[in-house]
Fold this protein.
Amino acid sequence: MARPDKAAAVAELADQFRSSNAAVLTEYRGLTVAQLKTLRRSLGEDAQYAVVKNTLTKIAANEAGISTLDDLFNGPTAVAFITGDPVTSAKGLRDFAKDNPNLVIKGGVLDGKALSADEIKKLADLESREVLLSKLAGAFKGKQSQAASLFQALPSKFVRTAEALRVKLAEQGGAE
């Protein structure tokens, strides 16, 4: 391959690293083309899975400001560039790796922070962004309901106390 082609490949990979929320490096040795196609589908629309050359990808990652992945570029490597929810793509990788032990998650990067393979598996155990946001909204709604009940309880308690005092005074023959 000519030098300009390599420079173009490095520039394209560096752009992908810059535009991605996360990138996960995997070893795909022993997977068939059909299995790789299934893996690409399982990652969702917000991820792109590419088989890459280690040297060019290492240079591209360094150009993008990511030097924490240098140790992971050995053996056959493929990168999942994730532009959407990293949890969904991590779940896709984890589930595919369970069914296909030839896929090995090496590590990755999330918003500039290096992740080990175990951390990526922990990320996959999280619930999706939508579920976490709905739980947060439910918690806020619950707190608002509690606050409304508290604010409503004070005036109603005052009215009950005042009524009890009025009844007591009426029983004693006092003025209302």
Observations:
- Residues 1-125 form a domain with the Alpha-Beta Plaits fold (CATH 3.30.70.1730).
